[in-house]
Amino acid sequence: MRILIADDHALFRDSLKSLLEARNHSVVAEARNGREAIEMARRHKPEIVLMDLSMPEVDGLTATRLICAELPEVKVVVLTASDDDANLFEAVKSGAQGYLLKNLEAKDFFTLLEGVRRGEAALTPALARRLMSEFSRPKVSTADPDALTEREREVLQLLVEGVTSNRKLAGELDVSENTVKFHVRNILDKLHLNNRAQVVAFALRNRLIVPRDPTD
Question: Where do you find CATH 3.40.50.2300 in the chain?
Fold first, then answer.
């Protein structure tokens, strides 16, 4: 994978770069602050940005929000020492594909990173439970699920059932991957959400989709 590291600590960047390259991943650039992270994401268009939160000039949450809005094909994974719920929730709302703590074991880190390539959210079970607990609380929303077309509801059904990669979605629906991307973008726009993890949580919370019994 082509990866951009954004962290203001040079020693941590060097250590992480060595760890990633030892697993045959390519570190295409390193950013010392959020402003550089945005500029380098535009220039190099990495597959993944590993984003620290506490950085000078522009913080990691702001950089995440801007990158996700401008470069939806670039997946941002927050990699931080902050275990604060507010940062976790805000990162996901900003479009982050995952939220990982720096004390994570290396094997778990790489397992979750590979999942991001497949379109999965990078969250440890403990953080996922906290996130789902937050999303399960009743909220007033301006989203309009009724605006979804029949085909968009089919895409939503598959997302809820765990079919998250564009390739697999295209295979299930017998359409091109570009068509899948078009439908997913429409779903995100109509529901006022930022990524697929949020879409699944929203659909389950609002009972838009009932997962089918796999034994049927």
Answer: 2-135
Q: 186 - beta bridge partners?
A: none
Overall pTM > 0.90: no
Asked if 49 contacts 41 with a C-beta cutoff of 8 angstroms, the reply is: yes
Q: How far is it, in rounded angstroms, from Cα 163 to Cα 170?
A: 10
The full length of the chain comes to: 216
Q: What is the CATH number of domain 2-135?
A: 3.40.50.2300
Under 8 Å between Cβ of 156 and 200: no
Residue 93 burial (C-beta neighbours within 10 Å; 0-12, 13-18, 19+)? middle
Instruction: Render pLDDT for 143-175 as a digit per residue (tens, 0 to 9).
Output: 667 788 999 999 999 988 888 788 989 999 999
Longest Cα–Cα distance in the chain: 54
Based on the number of CB atoms within 10 Å of its own CB, is 90 exposed (0-12), middle (13-18) or buried (19 or more)? middle
H-type alpha helices, 80-147: 85-93, 106-117, 125-135
Per-residue pLDDT tens over the stretch 117-147: 888 889 888 888 887 776 666 554 556 677 8
